[in-house]
């Protein structure tokens, strides 16, 4: 696929979409910046939720064997000699099946995506450090009450989240959600993967509307997925697990539970994802794996940022334990390690070289516990190691993200974080104390 794609083609530009319906924004995957959906166009053609004018222009650039600048992450990886996400995504069956049709297209055609992620609203009970009011109502409430964080460019300033950046409240009419449900019956016929994100999907009524539709129209080639913080009130968890059990009793191909968890276990995870109850998360992970032991699996989404590094090895050890206990006839416990690029002051690239060595130590643990033919499902995959190595390579490719300005912003943000939220960075990350003090010096 690497050679077949050529220097620029990425099938995800055609066959994958992430829809952020509270703000009417869209991108083909999580790397390019979000861009607005034309609210007038979707009144006539709901498929314009995906087939925007901007995206068609990017498709044409790719078809001309040129690199769209918005896809810079993949170009950086490829220039480092690594496989990029466009290679991984384009090689998936849901995309690769349309390769010839896409290669011979003009870029103007409307395409029905087969991989869809949708965020119906921004209702969320957490305030993760790198998140924003666009994706969390808790973040929105905090900045409306206390204002922006005092970074060099004020972070999450309420004035920034106006116009198309301001989420439409779930109680209000939302033309993008309306267009989605108008498009849904046609979209559903072509879907191979459908994933609901947030916000927190377990708190959103549209999640259960999708579930009801799938239960009424089971589809044997559908991979259904939900991303959750797995830390909602117990009553919601009970309702949700009841639905998942019934879905896994239908003819859907697979149900994937994504769980967001960005560092090790306990207080550090709760610090990064403020409001997280780690004990509740672990209880829900065990409940899911024990009580619904068929037609499903679970993937931890580990967004790699500068607070993920010191807890990464304990997280890998926990995942290995879960695999050994719950993966019998197929792999039920997965993880992915996408890198955080914004805000830049929480990027891996802000850290000194010694932190790359910590990730290499975790990599060595993974290499020592690779899955074997005689003992399948209980170790790590070679490509999981390769993805971590890709993250380490990106970490070391820093240009100016480790500048004093970003170190100062790290200190300013988390000093204010501790003041507002009653947390304590030094007590939670004592192993980072030397670097924290260096950041604080730059903030003076």
Describe this entry's structure for a reader.
With 444 residues, this protein is an alpha/beta fold. The protein has a domain of 117 residues. Helix content is 45%, strand content 11%. The protein contains 20 helices and eleven strands. It has a nine-stranded mixed beta sheet with strand order 3-2-1-4-6-7-8-10-11. Strand 6, helix 11 and strand 7 form a beta-alpha-beta unit. Helix 12 packs parallel to helix 14. The radius of gyration is 21 Å and the shape is globular.
Number of distinct helices: 20
Helix content: 40-55%
Report low-confidence residues grouped into runs of 5 or more.
none
Output the radius of gyration. 21 Å
- Oligomeric grouping of the chains: single chain
State which percent range the strand residues make up. 5-15%
Enumerate the strands of the largest sheet in spatial order, edge to edge or round the barrel: 3-2-1-4-6-7-8-10-11
Mean pLDDT: 94
The structure class reads alpha/beta
Number of strands: 11
Descriptive key words:
single chain; alpha/beta; 444 residues; 11% strand; globular; two-stranded antiparallel ribbon; 9-stranded mixed beta sheet
């Amino acid at each position: 696929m690497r050679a077949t794609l050529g220097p620029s083609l990425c099938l995800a530009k055609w066959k994958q979409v992430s829809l952020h319906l509270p703000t009417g924004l869209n991108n083909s995957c999580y790397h390019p910046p979000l861009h607005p959906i034309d609210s007038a166009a979707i009144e006539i053609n709901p498929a314009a939720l995906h087939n925007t004018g901007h995206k068609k222009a990017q498709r044409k650039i790719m078809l001309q064997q040129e690199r769209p600048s918005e896809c810079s992450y993949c170009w950086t990886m490829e220039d480092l000699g690594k496989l990029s996400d466009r290679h991984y995504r384009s090689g998936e069956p849901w995309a690769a099946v349309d390769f010839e049709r896409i290669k011979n297209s003009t870029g103007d055609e409307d395409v029905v995506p087969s991989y869809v992620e949708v965020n119906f609203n921004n209702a969320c009970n957490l305030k993760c450090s790198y998140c924003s009011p666009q994706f969390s109502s808790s973040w929105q409430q905090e900045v409306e009450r206390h204002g922006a964080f005092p970074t060099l460019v004020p972070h999450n300033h309420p004035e920034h989240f106006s116009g198309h950046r301001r989420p439409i409240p779930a109680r209000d009419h939302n033309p993008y959600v309306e267009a989605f449900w108008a498009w849904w019956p046609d979209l559903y016929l072509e879907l191979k993967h459908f994933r609901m994100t947030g916000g927190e999907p377990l708190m959103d009524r549209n999640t259960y509307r999708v579930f009801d539709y799938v239960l009424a129209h089971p589809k044997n080639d559908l991979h259904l997925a939900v991303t959750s913080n797995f830390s909602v009130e117990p009553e919601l968890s009970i309702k949700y697990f009841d639905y998942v059990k019934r879905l896994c009793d239908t003819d859907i191909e697979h149900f994937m539970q994504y769980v967001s968890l960005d560092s090790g276990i306990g207080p550090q995870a709760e610090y990064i994802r403020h409001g997280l109850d780690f004990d509740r998360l672990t209880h829900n992970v065990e409940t899911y794996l024990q009580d619904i032991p068929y037609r499903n699996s679970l993937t931890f989404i580990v967004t790699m940022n500068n607070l993920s590094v010191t807890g990464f090895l304990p997280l890998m050890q926990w995942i290995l334990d879960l695999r050994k206990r719950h993966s019998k006839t197929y792999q039920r416990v997965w993880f992915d390690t996408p890198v955080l690029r914004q805000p830049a002051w929480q990027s891996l690239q802000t850290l000194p070289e010694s932190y790359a060595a910590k990730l290499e130590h975790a990599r060595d643990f993974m290499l020592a516990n690779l899955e074997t033919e005689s003992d399948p499902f209980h170790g790590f995959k070679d490509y999981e190691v390769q993805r971590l190595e890709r993250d380490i390579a990106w970490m070391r490719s820093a240009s100016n993200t480790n500048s004093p300005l970003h170190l100062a912003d790290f200190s300013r943000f988390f000093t204010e974080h501790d003041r507002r939220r009653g947390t304590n960075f030094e007590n939670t990350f004592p192993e980072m104390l030397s670097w924290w003090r260096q950041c604080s010096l730059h903030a003076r």
